[in-house]
Amino acid sequence: MPFEWVVALRFLREGRFQTALIIIGASAGVAVVIFITTLVTGLQANTIKRVLGAQAHIVITPREEVARPQLTPKPGEAVLPRIEARTQRLRSIDQWQALAQELERTPGITAVSPIVSGAGFALRGDANKAVNLIGVDPARHDRIVHVTEKLVAGRFVLQHGDVVIGKDLAADLGVTVGDRIRLLTAPQGTSVSDAYTITGLFDLGNRGTNKTSVFVAFRTAQNLLDLPGGASEIDLTVADLFGAEKLAVRLAAKTGLTVDSWMKTFEQLLAAINAQDITTGLIRFFVVVIVALGIASVLVVWVVQKRREIGILRAMGASRRKVQRVFLLQGAIVAVAGSAIGSLLSSTMLLVFLKVARNADGTALFELRLSPMLFALAALVALVVGLLAAAVPARSAARLDPAQAIRM
Amino acid sequence: MAERLLELEAVRKSYGIGTEVETKVLHGIDLTIDRGEFTALVGPSGSGKTTLLNLIGLLEPPTAGSYRLLGRETSTLPEQEITALRALSIGFVFQFHHLLPAFTAAENVLMPGLIANGPSTRKDRERAVALLGDVGLADRVDFLPRKLSGGQQQRVAIARSLSLAPPLVLADEPTGNLDTHSADEVFALMRRFNEQKGTAFLIVTHDPRLARRCDRIVQLIDGMIAGDRPNEAIATAADPTIA
Asked: What is the DSSP pairing of strand A192-202 with strand A162-166?
């Protein structure tokens, strides 16, 4: 073993209590950082999954119609326009089929579902509920909202004349799978009404959605809403959740359509997630600082205690640089040992957490994923921090005047 | 004539230069030592013996004057080369043993080699053990310093100072803390290595009995060389200032 290793290891071994203390400190730091990061990441993923599970990540709709003043003032004239916002009709996305195909080829987009949606009523007997009619291709839409996973009865299959409704709406109307309800719409002032058979009941985990969302076949919706051959909306899922807004902006620029990402429509959720990120970031930062200070303070004391030995080593021909490396190495060894123990500790803590924190029904509260990247990153940070913490004591050790150090 | 080992010319040393408490310790030292010389450096406390030893040992630079070691002018050498030169040409024996407490006797002896030449080999270790055998500690090879008596520790220190076979060993009151018997043993050991290996020794001592057993006695008073004579002359003059 080279000189630096021999001396660094021996000093650490000789330091026993102090060594144990700073390794424990470093381990605790690494463990806390890994534990908190994994926990918060899991928590966020879970929150997003729950909130966005019944939502498209990106929704494409036609541009809103705007009223423009028709008069252009001549020179010397002034026009005082009063522009009233116009009502927004239900319109189809221009060239939606070509667009949908192109979107499917776009990297980063994992699912595409064209939709016809509009307002209507669900009727049964005297009951009369305002609903949101959604015409979809079930196979395509399943990849966005996962209705099939959330069915409480029946199947998510939509032939002409079929309808799939939420369990709360079913309760309101007093119906179940196999029953028939009437759907009423009033496009262009004329009313259209027909009877539909319920093939499935879903629970999307949101009472509002369960009460108002009504899935029908794509073509059925086109007829009901008088949008023949059209699609009023295209829903997308993306691979990179937090890149959704960027992608939305790009798509908007390319297509000239209104493109909204979940990051815009769920701004509050995003803000909450960001707040969590900042909080955990701060916690991690302070943990790292505290661990660094701990390692540094022990090493500083060490250098003072070992003045004489450093002097002897220098007298025996150890250069300043070698002495400096001895103490840097001690910092690094502490960091590596701390990373190893801390990783083990945090894995155990996470496993115990998964065992203990469970829903009433015994299923896991949420999913936690142990990321090797995170462990590697934590070890890297620990190493850098260990070296930085050792830098100051190492320098003061290297600067010791051997003649004076020996005289002590 | 013997080969010149080191040469000090008009060497001065002051501490706290530029402050109010500037202390001049050495005022113009001229001193030469040849290879294989066995010299005692004597003088009252505060006369600058340890400072002179540190200068010769390249542990600190002189304030003024020239110091040539093995024919090289040292005052202009960069730190790195000073360190390397010190490692290979000078061994140290300090008054308080100054072994590394965390390392065994053998490891202490191996340390200079480890620093200068990198990882110790089996051969290095055999040599270190042999050297410890030479100082009579064959059965204490793997003892930590605190398990050794003062005399034994000092013998380890001597073995360590010789481990890279330097041409010069500097000893600062090597027997200062030892009883007469141990002191005699340690002294005899240095004398033996001097005769067997031709290593030059410069020994700072307060003990006139030991000084008288050296070949040459250099006397330092108030930072100046007050006497530099072969042993016989001092012995016959019975100079009372030696003690």
From this structure: parallel
